[in-house]
Write a structure and sequence with these properties.
With about 150 residues, the chain is of the alpha+beta class. It is built from 6 helices and 4 strands, in the order H-E-H-H-E-E-E-H-H-H. The chain has a 4-stranded mixed sheet with strand order 1-2-3-4. A hairpin with a 5-residue loop joins strand 3 and strand 4 (about 75-80). The mean pLDDT is about 80.
Length: about 150
């Protein structure tokens, strides 16, 4: 994995939406600081986060965290927790899980790049082929030949 010249951080990419004021932004950025490690593999210029709350401190409160990363699908996480602090932690943790899942889906499994590289072919002289290859055992038959 190559290092990103300008890694994304919550402090740099976070916008506050409906239901929050700019005064809430620093407090929310502190709550979301644990996302920095996950966001660091993306460019800050291509990453945006927006948090909003509907019906703040009311019974039907709903916190939404949206994440846009260039070249990927938008990720939306929501929480209906009654406590605002708990709701923010809930959407943060859900976003971290989804980012981890998305990254896992995009990375090759079991060093796939090693399997994609072909093995070198050895050019054999047809006269040497009979000598180089072991003789076939007539007592063994494959399912296709039987």
């Amino acid at each position: 994995m190559s290092a990103v010249a300008n890694p994304a951080t919550v402090a740099e990419c976070l916008r506050v939406g409906t239901g929050f004021s700019q005064g809430d932004r620093n407090w929310i950025a502190e709550q979301f600081a644990t996302l920095d490690a996950r966001l660091a593999s993306f460019h800050a210029d291509a990453t945006e986060l927006e948090v909003s709350v509907k019906d703040r401190e009311a019974r039907g409160q709903k916190v939404t965290l949206e994440c846009w990363i260039a070249g990927r699908q938008k990720i939306v996480t929501t929480s209906a927790e009654l406590d605002l602090h708990a709701a923010l932690n809930d959407v943060r943790d859900d976003l971290r899980r989804r980012l981890n899942d998305a990254k896992t889906r995009q990375e090759p499994r079991h060093n796939k790049h090693l399997r994609d590289v072909g093995q070198p072919q050895v050019d054999l002289d047809p006269a040497e082929d009979a000598e180089a290859l072991p003789a076939a055992d007539p007592s063994r038959t494959d399912a296709e030949t039987a």
